[in-house]
Amino acid sequence: MTSLAFSLLFALAIAGYVWNLMAARSIRQSGARMHSLSGFHGMYSFLLAVVPVMVLILVWQVLKGPVIDRMVLGGLPPGTLDGVNAGAVQLILSEIKSLAGGRTFGTPEDWKIEAAERLVGLRQTAAYSLVGLVAVVAGGLVLFARLRVGAEFRARHRVERIVSGLMIFCASVAIFVTLGIAGSLMFETYRFFERVPLTEFLFGLNWEPQIPLREDQIAAEGAFGWIPVFLGTIVITVVALFIAIPVGLLSGIYLNEFAPRRMRAVAKPILEILAGVPTVVYGFFAILTVAPAIRSAGAALGIDIAPNTALAAGSVMGIMLIPFISSFADDALSAVPQALRDGALGLGATRAEMMTTVLFPAAIPGIVGGILLAVSRAIGETMIVVMAAGLIAKMTINPLDSVTTVTVQIVTLLIGDTSFDNPKTLAAFALGMMLFLVTLVINVFALRIVRKYREAYD
Amino acid sequence: MYDNPLTKRTAVTHEVKISARGVNVFYGENRAIKDVDVDIEDKTVTAFIGPSGCGKSTFLRCLNRMNDTIDICSVKGLITLDGEDIYAPSIDPVQLRAKVGMVFQKPNPFPKSIYDNVGYGPKIHGMAQSRADLDEIVERALRRAALWEEVKDRLSSPGTGLSGGQQQRLCIARAVATEPEVLLMDEPCSALDPIATAQVEELIDELREQYSVVIVTHSMQQAARVSQKTAFFHLGHLVEFGETGQIFTNPHDPRTESYITGRIG
Amino acid sequence: MTDIAAGPRRLSSTETVRAGLGRRKRHQIMLQGLGLAAISFAFLMLATLVGSLVMTGHKAFTQTHITLDVYVDPAEIPAAGLPRGGFRDVMTAALAERIPGVESRAELRALGAILSNGAQFMLRDRIVADPSLIGQTITMRVPVSDPYDQLKKGLIDRETPEAFRRVKDQEIAWFDTLMAQGAITEPFNWALFRNADSRFPELAGLKGALIGSAWALLVCFLISFPLGIGAAIYLEEFAPKNRVSDLIEVNINNLAAVPSVVFGLLALAVFLGWFGMQRSAPFVGGLTLALMTMPTIIIATRAALKAVPPSIREAALGVGASRHQVVFGHVLPLAMPGILTGTIIGLAQALGETAPLLLIGMNAFITSAPSTPFDSATALPTQIFIWADSPERGFVSRTSAAILVLLTFLVVMNALAIFLRNRFERKW
Questions:
Q1: To the nearest whole number, what is the mean pLDDT of chain B?
Q2: pLDDT at residue C21, rounded to an integer
Q3: How many angstroms separate the CA atoms of B254 and A260, rounded?
Q4: N or C: which end of chain B has fewer CB within 10 A?
Q5: Contact residues, chain C, for A284 at CB < 8 Å
Q6: Is it the case that residue B76 has pLDDT exceeding 50?
Q7: Percent of the residues in chain C that have a pLDDT greater than 90, as a whole number
């Protein structure tokens, strides 16, 4: 039915376009001087109908479900829901819905069947009234637009104003998304802190989010101290940077100054490929190749290495970050003016001396910004660690040991479980909030440095 | 120096410092310099003049092998410094550039302190044994560039904070700090205002006492003011080379005359 | 100035320079060597990555099949009972025909395990489609089960002691007999593209994931492309330079750097939690990916618009066009190749994105391909994640194969972007 509403809307809007176009043409043919071209009159009708009605349909779609649910529940025989908790109400509702969908399990009570029939009826009514509403509103708007066609009417200004409005809406979506992220995270995090004290989360040294299945189980309380999880994230990030920074910087330097032209032409696209490999692929690479290699190397040296060692996840993450850092270094070095290169060479510096004593120091702000962005990526990177790092939070900084990270915990706590009322799921949002805040601070800082640096040499 | 009319300048000949024979420069297929022969004397200011794109800067950059940094550029022919072929495989451009300093069109101080700018060359070449040594070198270079009095109280402030003329003199100080024997200047005043230009020109005249100075300029007046020898380049050819006075008052080649009188370029 | 001239001219300076030359040359070579080593390391890693994937993955592109003459026994499969019937027993019997001397039930069951669990359903489908086959003998080529596929491909070491091996000596002997009879073939594994997911590696395919990814990308494109272009045009061409525009700009740059898992949390809380959208649906996945792709498209579009020289704008404004007419009639068409390039690159990123899809449940076990964007589905990267997590040996090579398929798509998309850039990009 929704698609019918959409088709009807577009049919009406196109009809309005043609109608206005014809009207404007006939006025023009009668010799009047029009303010706007006929096409703009047509466009005016089209946009005037499409934009508000589209919003109407979307709002309707969002509100339809909850409103119908409420009406169905409200229509149940009085007293049915007395003393039933929220979860059970949801259960009843979904049972009614599956009855309405024609799937019967066992023998449902009569009132449920009745409610299901009412639900079907309501849904039909809703669909018909949506189509009717669209027809009336869109038709009215098209008629209104037709009435305004005239020599004096500034259709072009109107059209441009509507288009500008649409564009402003597009631009503000970015703000809505940020607000949406911040808002949803804050909301769920707030609910988490209603159950778990803030201090325990921020300063607790234990992370054991297991919630018992039965109330009488031992260890009925999970522990929600995020410090060990964060520590694990840091350990893996440090391992990653330990590989990515030297390799990335040196390759950036080499490509920028020393690589023969032909090698540069080959190497840059290859690094781009390395940068475009999805992280789930790196994750599989870590468990398929790198972790076994590290373990057998450890065995050969007589060192005991945990199966999910931070070294494996960290080093693969480092490989992922190499092209990121190298392209940042290359760009930052290229931004240093040619005059400085000439100056150093003209004084008799070798190319290596020019690089280390003039270009590199001059490019440091840009490079630091790039490294900070890489840090924020490493902290927020998910798939590699989900696949290759551990699940148990440990207070350790030993990279040979198995550690867990913030992102691993978010994913494992949320996979396959979306009831939003236990601390376990809410804890994931609290971790997400911390992740968002930490990366946000680093990003803002890094982007500012990079921007300042670009301005300095532009 | 200005009270010495062009025609009356005495033609003192010094020993030849740099000599070029049959020099051709190619940018890929394109021949930018065609069969240039020239002798540049010690303790003399030699000016290269000519219309834009005539190859004067290209030729200048051959003299300390700055063209080596451009992949597609190749130099044919013989250029000698004190009789030694500077393109010989045994010669390292690094060593050559320590001997043949260069000052560029736009002042290009490094984003470092004034002190570190001037001390840069001596430091990389290992010329200073101690900090005191380096202090002395820096002071001497800054004095020689007539900048010492202006900056002696703020040696640790960044070189990029100086005015345009000061920056260019800083670059000259940076170049002379490595004790070069030849100083190449590629339109050193083109980015400067007239007052700064006058200061730099005065400095060039003083530098002549110790160095062989080669200056590329698009300003004939400047060439006339500062140089003893002038070379006129046109379309990659060295058209005429001689005493500055003679070139400006009595050119032998009609092309030189056209340029000097403003008909070409 | 006399004091300068009096300063001692260091005639030794040339010698000083020469003395240090060797050391400085060595430093230069060292730095160059380090750089070369670094870049070689990066290449080596890429080569190892691709190499290990190809090594393990190429085997999944073929699948061992067995050809059997199946007597469709009416006693086991009565026409009246369709679609029920003893299909498995009929298939096992056909197999036993080829191996004489297998009598006991236990042995028969072990022998039947050579066939894939899907073999009986292939027979069933064929007979349901044409019941007249009952009572006849038909030739069927069906996949063998995973352990025998591995055995054929040499992934099971026959030297391993029997106790540690997944196929016993007796079973290997049977299989070798079948090989000798020429019943075993290893054709291209079409099932990899024709089937959806399955618990049995020999039947598992990518169809569901490919279609799920296609729906998600389509939704992602339909939302992020207009939004991104609209936002970019506004910011680049119309927005007044004030604090609000600055705020939006900072916002977009930050959004581009927000970890992807956070977008998953947003989708989980808002799309699934508040709006009650369908879990595991490619539509929700596409919506989430659109939010992540939008900043990329905005940034690319702005760069493309910036590259159109102001002279074009001035020329059009000069003949009396309005700013809207200039932008939509002249600037936007000229910027389109750049915009498309950026969009394709953004979509390629979206195709490989995994974490947010996991959080909205696109890692469910779903054995049929979605027919609309609102059906439950997996996507290519989440399918890789599921298979990588599966314990069966056969999924290792299938994971690699799925990754190779994903990488092929990415390479094609990026190549298309590069082609567009080179073909249509103008230098002003």
A1: 87
A2: 86
A3: 45
A4: N
A5: 53, 384, 388, 399-400, 403
A6: yes
A7: 38
Q: Which of residues 1-20 of C touch B (CB under 8 A)?
A: 1, 3-5, 7, 9-10, 13-14, 16-20
CA A85 to chain centre: 34
Would the pLDDT of A384 be above 90?
yes
Check A347 against B97: CB less than 8 A apart: yes
List, in order of start, the domains of chain C with CATH numbers.
60-188 (no CATH), 207-424 (1.10.3720.10)
pLDDT of B200 higher than 80:
yes
Query: Given C39, C388, C414, which is nearest A267 (Cβ)?
Result: C39
Which chain A residues are Cβ-neighbours of B111 within 8 angstroms?
340, 361-362
Alpha-carbon gap: C428 to the closest alpha carbon of chain A (Å): 19
Domains in chain B (CATH in brackets) are 5-260 (3.40.50.300)
Taking an 8 Å cut-off on Cβ atoms, the answer to whether B210 and C19 are in contact is no
Is B180 in contact with B99 (CB distance < 8 Å)? Answer: yes
Find where tokens 């809505």 sit: A176
The residue among A448, A415, A396 whose CA lies nearest residue A230 is A396
pLDDT for residue A458: 60
Q: Is the peptide bond before C187 cis (omega within 30 degrees of 0)?
A: no
Q: Judge: A348–B94 Cβ closer than 8 Å, yes or no.
A: yes
Give the pairing type, strands B73-81 and B84-85. Answer: antiparallel
Residues 6+ apart with CB under 8 A from B175: A346, A347, B101, B102, B103, B121, B183
The answer to whether C199 touches C124, Cβ cutoff 8 Å, is no
Cβ-nearest to C21 among B94, B127, B206: B94
CA distance C93 to chain A (A): 39
List beta partners, residue B230: B47, B242
Q: Please indicate whether, in this complex, the C-beta atoms of B178 and A339 are within 8 angstroms of each other.
A: no
Burial of residue A400, with CB atoms counted within 10 A of its CB: 0-12 exposed, 13-18 middle, 19 or more buried: middle
Chain segment A224-234, per-residue pLDDT in tens: 888 999 999 99
**Residue position matching structure tokens 């992602």:** C220
pLDDT more than 70, % of chain C:
96
Q: Which CATH superfamily is domain A219-457 in?
A: MetI-like (1.10.3720.10)
Task: Specify the domain boundaries for CATH 1.10.3720.10 within chain A.
Answer: 219-457
A417: confidence class by pLDDT, cuts 50, 70, 90: low
Percent above pLDDT 70 for chain A: 94
Judging by DSSP bridges, how do beta strands B30-41 and B16-27 pair with one another?
Answer: antiparallel
Task: For the beta carbon of residue A158, count every other beta carbon within 10 angstroms.
Answer: 19
DSSP letters, C42-108, are HHHHHHHHHHHHHHHHGGGGB--EEEEEEE--TTTS-GGGTT-S-HHHHHHHHHHHHSTT--SHHHH
